[in-house]
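Reference record
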Amino acid sequence: MSVPRWILGIHTTTPVLGLAVLPLEEKLGESRSRSWWLDREMAAQLHPCLKEFLAGQDWSQMAGIAVALGPGSFTGSRLGVSVARLLGQQLRIPVFGYSTLAVLARQVWQEQGSPPQPLTVAVQMDAKRGEQYGGVYRLGPEHWVAEVADQIWEEAAWQKVLRQWPQALVVDAADWVDPAPVLALAELARADFQAGLRPSWQTVLPLYGRQPPIDLRELNRSAPQPG
């Protein structure tokens, strides 16, 4: 029986596809990641890119899958979650899902040098219609917490939130698209895996932010069912 050795990261919620392989421990090898600007070709190119990226990788040693849930592209969010659920079900391994905004907050924390003192990051993403997806996160070396859970805000309401967190570093998701923050995504999953969490693929669903142009029940009907 193979020993679990690495986490697969899948980030598809923006026009940029991000894939990553992250060892559970540094001694097990080096991490690697790659990004592709695919935009409307995401659905057609995800599987070829995944096959190319994982060529030579021992799939039996995959410990878990990390996937960005959204908000972002409806199609991209649905696609990444569907692939992660399928792999998790077939390989019988946990699937870790995280908000796109939480992943970006983790990336910002790392870009700031992974400070030992907690860093507060407010992440915003244009939701159109004069609204923002927004959330406020506090991150440190050992844990992270959503101080303000991400949701859709009217612009005035979001600005009020920011005034309530004057110490927060405010970042706009539009400035962090390429490369995709997929290693940060995988690192969130590694920390949770090492903490003993083993979420089932069945618990992972897209976070659209607002009602998508499909019914969520379509995802459940199309998902692989246990034999």
